[in-house]
Every structure is written in structure tokens, then in C-alpha cells.
Records
---
Amino acid sequence: MDLIICGAGRVGTHAAEVLAEAGHDITVVDTDAERLAGIADTMDVATYCGNCAQADVLREAGGGDADLLVAATASDEVNLLAAAVAKRIGTAKTIARVHHGSFFEKRGLDYEKQFSIDRLICPEYSTALAIASTLRNPGALAIETFGRGSIQMQQFPVNDDAVAIGKPLVELSIPPGTRLAAITRKEEVFIPDASSAVQKGDTVILVGNAETFQDARKLFHDDKLGRRRVVLMGGTPMAVWLCRALHDRNFSIRLFEIDRQRAEALADKLSWVTVMQANPIERSVTEEEHIGNADVFVALRRNDEANIIASVLAKTMGVTEVIAVVGGTAYLDLVYHIGVDRVLNPSVVAAKEIQSMLDDSPLQRLSSLADGVVDAYRVRAGRNGSVIGKPLKELKLAPHWIVAAIRRGDKAWVPGADDILQPNDIALLIGRHGMEKELKKLLSSG
């Protein structure tokens, strides 16, 4: 494919490298000739020096025939304009990278629709979701990315005294908008139906809309040992999204921000978070606040070196799990050897999002669950699919699959028995590994 990447910063450069290695023809556009020269010396890509918000520049760079343009400069406004202009001159698909929540969350205006942009991506938001998912269950990321955080998924053991034990699911008062997606019993994993009942020793995968998930979880696993203690360093927008992602999910959060004005603003915005104006790795603070007793420490400042050093120090204090956000790629192979448990790079996250958009196939496997026995699939419902127009309760998906979520336009939700799939809906199914052919035939024909 012919791809244009606007912006030769961290996100644009990493995306160009990944996509060029995948065999795509890449042209990188930037106003900095020196930066472009460095890219041309190290990658097999074309470069064009100019302002990507200008139509003539994009035409000269090949935008009229490009399959995809990714606008990833440091300016949200330039990215929105570049993506919109590219679409008008003939680019097939466009992606605009944005930093500010007002654009990504579409406050007051649907920027994708108004500017005819195929997708807005915010690596900081996606990275926050990835961190939240690692603190609960790695497989949850496929679901949460699918629903932009409006849908939750967790895998957990059933309590011995759980309310749900021995009761068929049809008899349980499971809140609307939640589904039991899979049950692991000893070494067997199966997709439940209405007659299934959990037993002592089972492990379950539960999917639900964010507002109902915790009430449903209590039927199977009622946490009585207190919440996990999380310490965040840095009051960045990523930290705000992470706090929201962990809200009401059995986490006690303390957020440390050095700047007083920013700390006060965060305290007003995040009422469920303890916000402190201090540096958590200063000796006096670590001792007074008992940082070493935290279960998780996440370094979220905009300085890579500061995040790595803070994470290592937190580990030496006794924190169980430390996570560092690192914007560059120079340290990625090093940090695991010096005590950091997990490193997340927004540029890597963005590149994966861009790659996923290049996949036009009606069926994609997003994630592996339950030790590889069960997978999460993204399926686009075709017009002639045998399931179109029928209530889910009439579809014979079990024992192999369950419809875990539906996305229609900007709305994503966990469906009930009476929901109906419409043409071009995106369905997220959880089902047995190795049955992609049958699933594609069922949902995507036509």
C-alpha cells in the first residue's frame, strides 16, 4: 500500500519504520529537512519537505493516490486539517493523531464526522487503557480498545461462597449489559449458555458495560481483602485517563504532581483520587507516604529518564509492580534488566492502531484468552450474513461463540438477548480458538 505519514516525530518515525518493514511504500512529510534526512538515511522510505496542511504539498507527496494518510505532527489542529485536506484530494483513508481530550472525546463536535476523517487516535489514551488492562487482565485490552473504555472485561476465580454457584445463568439476576463469556473448569474451557452454572474452583471471563460491571462481578467474586494500592507519578493527561479507567475497580489511587496549580486542578477533576503536590521518590515523601507499601507504581511524566529512574527506585523501596511510560525507543531493551516490570511506549501503541486499520478483512483475531483456548474476534457483519436481522437469542452460537459486544457507529455496548445485528455492525465475539473459518462464514458472508 502507498502510505503517507505527516510528522517525523516519535510517533510518525516509529510508524514509518514499522510499516516500511511490513512492506508498505512510505512517504514521510515534515517541515524539518534535517530530520527528514536522518530518516532517509536509516529507513527505506521516501521523504518530502513541506507543510502537510497544504493541499499542493500533499499532492506532490502522492496524497491523491495514497491508500492511507497518517497525520502525526505535534499539532492537533494541523493533524485535523491535514487529514481533512488529504481526504478531499483523494486519499482513501485518513488517521489524525490528537493529544487533547476535547478533540478525542468529541466535546461539542464530532471531529471525525465533520472533517471526514476515518479515525482519530490518541496514543496517550490508548496507553492508559493498556496500563489499566495489565493491572487487571492482559486480555481485557482487546475489549476496552474496542469500546473506548465503555466496556470492561475481567478474568477471575469464582469465590467459594459466591451467590452464583450452582444456579443456572437464566436464574441469576445478572445486570443488563453484562455477559459471562467463558468458564474454565479444571482444564476445560467452555462458552456458557443459559442453563450453565458456575461451580467452586471455576474461573470466569466476565464482560460488561462499565456502569453495570461491578454489580455483576459481585455475583461471582466479592472482593473482601481491600483494594490494590496504586501510586501514579506525574499529572499528565495520560494519568487522568488512567485514573478514569481504574475508577471504581477495586483500586485506591494516589496521584503525585510537582506543580501546585496542576495538582489543584487535578484534585478538582478527579474526586475519587488522592492528589498530592509532591515528588513521590523524594526521601521525605517516600517515608511519610509509605510509597514502598504500594502494590503498583506507574511513572507517567513526560521525561523518559525520570520515569525509568523513579520506577527503579520504587522497586527498591518494595513496590510489588512498577510500570514506566517511555516515549523513545532507545531504552526499551534495557529497562527490563534494571528492575522495571513493564514499559509502555505510546509510539508503539499508535503503530499497532495504524496497522489494525490497514486490515480490511471482515474477521480479525484481536486477543488470546484463557491460556490460548479462547480468542476474541472482531467481525464485520456482512449484508448477507445468516445472523443479520435476528435477535441474538435465536442464534445458535453456543457452545463455540458468544457475542461479547457490538459497535454501531460511535456507540459500543454489551448486547442483551433481544439485540439484533445490522449490516456493517462490528461484533466482538469470544469463542474457541481455531474456528475462524466457520465464524467468518456465519457472520461475514456477503
Note: The first helix runs from residue 10 to 21.
---
Amino acid sequence: MKKEFDVYEYVSEKATPQVLANHGDEMQKFAAYCDQAKKALDDAEKEESKANGQESLILERQRNAILGLPKEVRFYKQQIKDIIKEMGIGAEWYPHWYDSMEDAIYNEILGFAGLAPWIENRKPEYQYSSSAKMIGGRIYFMIGGKLELQPQSMTSERRAQLRAALLLDDPRKRLNEVYHEVYLQDGSRVTIYNEGLAKRGQDCIVFRKFVVQNYSFEMQAEKHTIPAELVPVFKAMVKVGYNVAFVGPVRSAKTTFLTTWQSYEDDSLEGVQVESDPEIPLHEIMPNAPIMQFVPNEDDLRSVIKRIMRSDADYIIMAEARDGVALHTAVKAANKGTRRVKMTFHTTDVIDFAYDVAEEIINSYPNMDLGSYIIKTAKSFDYILQFAQLEKNKSEKRLIGMWEMRYDLTARTIHMLQICKYDYDTDAWTFAFDIGEDKRQIGHIVSPKAFAEMENILRDLSQKYPMQGNYKYVPFCQALLRG
């Protein structure tokens, strides 16, 4: 039996102590208004269902309203506007995180409730906020790189309604399953952790909004994400067409920098972009470039690898290489001679990059040889750019290392050379000059002018801001290759 809407439970769960202390009476009155409006809508829809027997269409309309589809939102807001007028409460108090009484009641009974301001970017700081999180009834918004507890919260009944609406579109998903991942109309990812996995009463819903920004290298330098001296170097590297991996932990600006890098690519070249999430809108960033964008799930990716490889693309972008299937696609493309391959990869240990990638591939393809894929990975990527967010201010991102991965075919040796290093104490970068022969050959063949500029600047930087200590490393997996 469905639990009745309880005003006092609603108030106790809805308002934080601060809100109750300041507006306790108003919150109770507002909760009562929501209760009355909800009852009026329910009664109207019961009558509608009796009249035409279209209960499934009403449920679909409710779901679409919760997901923010304009037609359904307009329909219910008009209904609520009429109810507010009939009740005579248009000038009454409502919680400050909403825009109007109509907006407040709509979101409390049909929309995203206290999450609505973040989802709809109602403040400038929400526009570039990448995530929001609900733990139990508590709501947090990511602001300036930190999760901030909001004054609004959500009842257990309202959370259950929201979860049910989010899952209606896929009959394969069951409400009693402990984990779900769904997508909103704008491509935002919603991850649901139900009780059974989450602690009782602490079910979680995580919203990930894709706010990848299309910066220029100059803008990245202004934000101090990269040293300004490397701007012409990066532009030259794009022209040469090196294969590049952008690595680091979550929220370290990997995808943003990949997007920046890609925006300098020759838009006459044919590209293929593969993502696990619809995160990078290349059709908007490079509207004239012939780039095919695919968003397959893991099972689909296995089956479409051959089709991707047959697409005659000049380059491949693996926007987020989460697993061995995605990594195998990128490595296979590079080993077939494809240049300008780009990907992001979650790791903090760049020295063992080749091993980490190969291990993920072997986990997905157990019949393949680990040593062979270590070598293939080492041959696949020319440079690795390592990013991190600063602990003292997580909204600040830094390029903390630029590495050349070098494989000696004759000696079967791998070296990792750090040619740019970030110093946390001085908030500045130092450099070492060392360019492998294979990188020189690529540069001389593709764009001698761009390579010469890159070489000269890196040499000058190593003299002006010399790196102290060792910059050349042998990864531990080298011992596996000797075996």
C-alpha cells in the first residue's frame, strides 16, 4: 500500500536545522501547500484515467516531466499555476532556492526538488559544476572543486519517486536492484545506489553533468593549468600528429585538455571519436570536421571494433579509456600506423603506463600475451601528459608532467623520459631536453617546420628552467620483457 503524504514527516526530512530555525512555520505551511497541490493533481489524473483508461500515458507524462522534457513540464506547470490561483497562495513564502511558488511546488512534487537549481544552472557557479550528490536526504553540489552541503534536502518518499521515474524508460532495470546507471535528456549521467548496497536510509544518487569547456591553449595558460611557454610547443605537436595520452585521477582536467588539443586538429581530416559517455560535443566544437562520434556500451564496443578500424579515419579519439576493450581499440589503431591517436586514462603512475594499459587489455582478452601488449603500448603512444587537481583548491588543475615514452626496437627496452615537471612548492615548471629518434623522424616527415619549433623551444626551456635530478626512468615491467 502506498504511504500517504505526511506534512510533518515532510518538514522534518525536508528542512535542515538552519532552515527550520529561520522558517519553521513557513516550511510547514509550504509543505501543506505542496500536499494540497499534489492531491489536486492526483485527483485530476485519476479522473483522466477513468475517462480514457490511459494510465500508462499519464505515468509516461509524469516521468517526462521529472526528466525535464519541455512539453510535459509546461503542461504540469500550467496545472500547478491554476491550482495556486485557485488556492490564493501566489504571494505566500516558498524556499529561497526556487524561482517562484509555481516553480517550488512543481519541483517538490514532480521535478528534481532541491536538485533543480543545480540541474538547470540557476547560478553562475552551477554552470561549471560537474557533479551533485544526494546521500540519504542530504544534497551536495560541487562548487569550486568541493562538495558543499545545501540547505534543501529530499524525503525518502520523494527519492523513491525520483528513482522510479528515472528507471521507467528501461524495463530491464528493476527498482530492487542495488545499482543503476541512466542518462538524462541532456546526456548527464545519473548513478543510483539503492539500499542493499548503500547503508539503510543512506541510499545515494550521483548526478554527473558534463561541463567540458572548449579552451584555447592560451586560456589554459591563463588559468595556470599549463606553462605559457608550452603553448607553441603543444600547437606544434598537434601539427606533427603525435599519439598522445592524457592521464590523471578523476576531475583532473584530462578530458578538458584533450578537447582543447583536439580543437587545434586539422578539420579536413577524418576522425572517429569513441566515448563511454556523451561528453565531448565535437560537432559543436569542430562543426566543419568529418568526425564520427560513437557512444557504445561495453558489449557494443567489442562488436564494433572491426567496423571502427574499417572506417578509413585519419585518427581515433578514445575519449575515456575505462577498460581493456577501449584500450585495445586505441593500441590496435596506433599499431596499424594511425597517427594523431588521442585518449584519456585514469592513472597516477605514468612510469608504468605501458604495463597498466597492457594489464587492462589482458584482463579483457585473457588469451593475449602480456609482454607483447606492453611492447605494443610502448610503441603506440609518443607523449603522455599527466594532470592533477591541487589539494588546497580542487578547482585548480595543473599539468604535473609531460613524458616521452620511448621504445628501443633493437634492445627491446622501454624508457620513460619526463621532459616537463611541475613543482608544487613554487607553482612552476622545470624542463629537460631529450627527444627520441623515432619522434624526430615523425616530425621531419609530417611537418619539419613545426618539429623544429617544438625542438628549439624545449631546448631553450631546459636551459632557462632546468630540471634537477633524474628525468629518465626504466619501468618495472622491463624485467618481464627480459624474461
Note: The chain is about 45% helix and 20% strand.
---
Amino acid sequence: MIRKLSLLSLAFGIALCNSDAIIAQDIDNNDLYFTYIQLPLSPIKSTKSYQASVIQKFEDVIKTKTDLYNQDLAKSEEEFKKAMEAHTLLQKMEDDKYAAAMTAWNKKPKAEQILYANQFPQRTVIPMPTKREVLPPDLPKTYDTQLLAGKYIRLEGFNNTNDNPVNISVSLYGFNSEPPVVKDRVSQKATAATGTIPAKPEIRKYYYEIRYKHMMSYKMEVAGQGVITEQFPAELDTYSEFKTTEYDSISTLERNWPLNKAKTMEQIQDKVVYDNLAYITSLINDKYGYVRVKYGTLLSVVDEKKDYQDYKEAYVAAENGYKLITESANKSAAYPELDKAIGLWENAMKQSQPNNKKARVDGDVTEITILNLIEAYIWKDDYINAKAWIDKLKTLDPSRKGKRRLEGYEALLKRNKTRFDANQ
């Protein structure tokens, strides 16, 4: 897995990569991208295997609700059966009364029947009973937990095997949503007529907003250590909002909702489950995994035809070194090339004359040389020398763009050093 750039790295990379020549026209600051393996904040050194599982804690709730529904359904059937039996009995009683009345009527003389025609017997029909409707409960969607675990839960840098594994279990506590609320927005603002342009009325669109969440937690266990972490991320216990399709009127929205409800609610449930599992995986890997991270920066070179061959050679060596960083977490494959570049830059710094504009290594060249050195030492995990060059550059009052680049390197140093120290 290659993780997206962090906000800090992204902002830093964009700022650097959008820069023009930072110091002077004879200096090129070229975009440089590579992928590195980020060290974990809490390394697990006893194994390189993991197993993942997903537990649906709400299955008992589903069973309870389903059992109650089935019981109520059976009760409704029994009530209807008894009502039908009572109806049959009552109807028979009424029919017997009607038959007796008809027998008595038929015995009356014709003259009496004509005289009392308004008393002709009427058959009473007992209304048929209706079965009490039992609405099925709203149940959270259940998932193939084995499929979810295999697709969404990974511990980067570890093998998914049963060889003394780190056991990662993620618990799902069930989907929750609030009733949909009608919302609207202005899709066209009203405008007055001007000249030949006619007036425009305000147009509103109507939609439902549905607030939802699905709480989850995760636990990690290591043989010989027991549970190393169990977390209930607070972010997953807050509601998110889902916006349905828009309509031109509230009545159209309400009329279409019953047709779209089932599909929409399933879509929301899938989204929150997949998003939350991905988020939990990112939390786990940030602390325990060896994640491949994309990184963007600048590599500077003096673009003069004469007297700067050493800078060109250092540039090539550094570029080759950074490309080799991706090969392993300890970055050792990159060291020979980075050492070559560092040697050339530090040798050039012996000629540094920041206040002499005619010097080969003047203030502008001094600044980009130190910036190159700072980054190279950071990626060699030589934080003492990196900090020394940071302090050196600060004494030279760097340019505005140089300061911005320096701030990015200070953040990079802090981030990388924290992880490096944790793995020693």
C-alpha cells in the first residue's frame, strides 16, 4: 500500500515544487519524488506475521429484533385466526336469525306482507376482520466478515500468515442513523431584469440530509505480550451527513423517498463500514506498520556551464541515492550515493563566501548547498549533522523561499527522527 502524502508533506511538497528558481537565475530547483518506507512509531519486533478478523457485535441485537418480530408476526396470525373464528360464529348466528325471520315472514299472508313490506327481513353481514400489520424491524446490514478482514485490514510490512501472528480484531457495533431531514439550497439566485436580459427567479432544490455513524473498535494482541492496544476511535462515534438526490419540490422529494429508501440506506451503510475500516487500518499502520509513503521535494543544482561540475555530479549522486531509498526501511542502499553527494557539497562549502557576490559559492549558492545537505543528512538518519546545518543556515538569514524550505526540512527531521529513535 502506498499512503497518500500527509497534509504536512503535501503542503511542503507543493510549496517546493511550485517554486521558481529560489535564489538566482543560475540555480535550478528541480522537482524530486520518491517513495520511502515509513518506520512505525511502536515497532513489533517479535514477529512479521499478522491475522485479521472482523466481529459483528450487533448480531445479537439483530437476532433479538428478528425473534421479537417473528413472535409478533405469529401473534398477529393467531389474533387473526381467532378473529376469523369469531367472525364465522357471529355470521352464523346472524344467518340463523335471518333464516328464522324469513321463515316467519313467508308464513305471513300475502296481504300482510304487502302491508308490512318495510319490515322485510334483512341479512346482517358481519365485517371481515383484518390482520394486524407487523412491520419488519430496521436491521443493520450484515457482512461477510472474512471478506471484510481480507480486503480492508492490512498490517504493512507483515505477512498475512498464521506464523505466530499479530492478531488484529475489529469490532463493529452496528449502524445508526437519524430520520431524514428536508434541506434545501438555492441553485439559482434571483436577478432583476437589466436591459435585454430578463429577470431570473430564485430556484431552490430540495433533498434529504441523513446523519449516520457506525462505531467500531480495534484490538491487537501479540504472543507473549498479550493485548498491546485496544482503541475506540472517538472520530467513529460522531455523525456524518449524507445528501440524497435533489428534487425541484418537497412533494416530489417525499414521493420518491419510499422508492429510493432501501437502496440509499444500503449505500450509506456500505460507505461508512468501508470508510471506517480503511481509517482503522491507517491508524494501525501509522503506529505499527511499515508503510510506503510518497514524498515530494526539491533538489537544487547550479546551472552554470563552467566551474560547477562538482554540483552537477552531486546532483546526479543525490538523485540516484533518493531513488534507492525505496528499497528497504533502513535505506542503506542509498548511503553510498548520498555520501558522495554530501562529500561534494561539503567540499564546496569550504569556498563559501556568503557576502561576496563574485565568489563561486556566494550567498545564493551557499543557501541551496546547505539545504541540499540538510535533506541528505535527514534521509541518512544523521540528525546531528542535519541539525548542525539547519543551525548554520539560520545564522545566514536565508531568503523567504529558503526559510519556507527550511521549515519543511525541520518538520521532516522531527517526524523522521521520532520514528527512527523508536526503532532503535
Note: Confidence is low (pLDDT under 50) at residues 1-25.
---
Amino acid sequence: MNPSVQNQVQTNSSIWNKLVNALKGTEADYTKISLKHAIFLLAVPMILELVMESTFAVVDIYFVGKLGPSAVAAVGLTETYLFLLYSIAMGLSVAVTAIIARRVGEKKKNKAGKVAVQSIILALLGSLPFAIAGIFYSKELLSLMGADEWVLETGYRYTQWMLGGNLVIMLIFVINAIFRGAGDAAIAMRILWISNGINIILDPLLIMGIGPFPELGVEGAAIATNIGRGVGVLIQIYTLFKGGKHIQLKFDQLYFDAKLMLSILKTSLGGIGQMLISMTSWIFLMRILADIGSEAVAASTIVIRLLMFTLMPAWGLSNAAATLVGQNLGADNPKRAEKSVWLIGFYNMGYLIIVSILFFIFNKDLMMIFSQDKQVIEIGAEWVRILSYDYIVYGWWMVAVQAFNGAGDTKTPTLINIVFFWLIQIPLSYYLALELDWQHSGVFWGVFWSELLVGLFTLYLFKRGSWKKMVI
């Protein structure tokens, strides 16, 4: 065989083997193998996990949309409360990933198991207020958000199921964070694929009453979600006790440890703050756009979906930085931790440059997929084009934030978010849009300048290196 052909065959075989290992999971020590290999093994399943999550969200709302605007409103109004739940679940997950990664990097897997148990107990406790509110006060909660008569008489059952059964949502977030922190990203991916796969299958069956299944309408969507996530949680717990590649729980670890739980909670407060600040800042921006006109709101809603869809792979890649930083700091190798962040940041910005080019060239075409309204298309195309100028900086910011989080420094990103999103982005967008009368363009440019500044400032703080000295 020609040597060049043979080398190509060996290269293809090597890439295929790496892909198989990334999807299956390996016992590789992420503090010792080559950084490129470690990033690949962690990032592939994390990216696929988030892609599946975004696919489920689209499919779910597609089937609910067939029931009419009131059914969609029931989902939308319930999600305003679920956003608070997601903030808590994601904030707790940030802390869990960081602490588990640190313990695994220190080769203290028994302590990692103890952290996992206390994290699960915290998730149980955190879900209780939402469950009580959802089961007993769903109509009152929806009324508070201005729900119509149909939602209050029929759609409230969706809220009851989603908030009442929120434990499965909380647990699937937190336990997958345990797996990711330990380096078992492939397990987290498979569980979410199974969970969301069941949900996607059950959605049309329970919503529309296909075959032997009852026609439950919007309530069926909530039941499908609870069943899918519930199955995922059962698999998670089974896998934790059976033992993943890097972490295993033991029955003698099943006890309440208030000191350890408070330590986890303290670390998680910054993560929860980050999520709440980000979500509320978008609410304020949408409120400004609402004063400008419904077309601006509609266009922005579409753009945000495009934004989230294209950023899912970038977030998956960024999540790999949190695991590598935590484990390498635990292994007392801060230089390798820093190198991993620069390398992942380079990859992330490369991907988002490609997206930026597509956004710049095809901004109108992308909007026309979702809307036929000329004004909505024009407004949305303008924001997509402005986003294309900013995406490369956003790519770095995502990775740097996850690096801080992976080190256990959740306070720094929280303070950054307060300053740049609440104190700069919202007032600047308001001033440009309403005071200078730039209308929707003012909001878009306000977002551009705040995100450009936050990216540069985060780079400055990262280079200072104080995150390497975090003790958790």
C-alpha cells in the first residue's frame, strides 16, 4: 500500500476510535492524557447532549402549538416559573461540577461520592417549594401572570404536572453535573438522549390521543416530560451505584452531612446568581422592545432561538473547560488548566467565526424561514447581522466563564454579569432605544457594546490568574 494512503487510513481509524471512545466513555485520566484528546473526549458528548436538549424543546412546542395559542400560552406562562427553577438547578450544577472535578483530580473518589450524595439531597430540598406551589397554587400562579380563561380552567394542569413533578428536572440537571465533573460526559449524554427520546415519542401520543393512549392535550405534554425525565433519573441513580468510569456511590455514603451541604450551597450561590442575572436581563430587554412594537418582539424572539441553537455546540465545548480546569487544579497542575482554557477558547472562537460569516451573509434568509412578515424579517435580519460582529468575543467569554466556574470561583462571573448586564447593557439599551429614539436598533447595539466589553474585561481577569488559587 502507498505510504501516504496507509497514513491516511491510520489517521481515519484513529479519529473513528476517538469518536467511539467519546461516545462510550473511557477511564482516561484527563489530567495526564494529551489536552487535545481530553477536550475531544469531553466535548463531543457534551455538545451532543445540548443539541438533543434543543431538539426536544423545538419538537415539544411544535406539538403543543397544534392545540392553539392558549395551549402555547400555558406552556409559556409556566416556563416563567420554570426559569427560576432552571436558575437554581443550573447554578447548583455549576458548583457540583466544580467540586466533583476537583475531588476527582485530587484522586479522592470517595470524597467525590460524598459530595454527589449531598448534592442530590440539596436538589431534593430545593424542589419541594416548587412542588408545593405547583400542586396547590397553580391557578393562582397563572392568574398572577395574566392567564386567560382557558388556561385557568384547563391549562393549569400542565403547570401542576411541571411544577409538581419538578424533582425529576432538578435531579437530571444535578446528577448529570456529577457525571460531567467526574469526566463521565458520555453517560450524561446517553441519559439525556434516552430521557428526551422517550419524551419526543410520548408527546404526540399523549397530547393527541393516538392509538390506545388518552387524548390529554397540553397536560399530555407535561406528563410526557415527567415520564421521560423520570426514566432518566432512575437510570442515573442506577448508574451512580453501579459505577461509572470515574465515580461510584456506596450505600454507606447515604447520610446527611450539613457541613458539606452548606459548602456546596455556598459555592452554588454564585452560579445561581449568574443564571438569574442573565435571564432577568433578557426579560428587561424584551420589555424595552415591547414598548417599541410587537414586530420588534416577534423578531427578537426568533433571533434568540437562532442564537441559542447556534450556541449549543459552543456551550458544550465550554463545559469541557469547566471539567478540565477543576480536575487539573485538583491535580495541582494550574498551567495545564490554563492551557486547556486557551485551547478550548481557540476552538470555540473558530466555530463561531464560521457562524458569524453565515449570519452576515444569510441574515434575511434565516429570518424568512420563521416569518413572512417583511418588518419582522428586516428587524430580525439587522440583529442577526449585528450579532455576527460580536460572536467571536462571545465565544471567548463563554469559555472563560466556565473556566472560573470550574475552578470554583462562581463569584467573579456573577459580579461581571451584574456590572455588564444590569448596570451597562440594560441602561445603555434603554438610552439608545428610547431616549435617542434608535428604536429596536438601540437595543441591538446596546447588547453589542456590553458583550464586547464583557468579553474583553473577562479576558483581563482571566489573565490575572486569581482563579488558580481557589480552594473548594
Note: The chain has two domains: 34-256, 267-472.
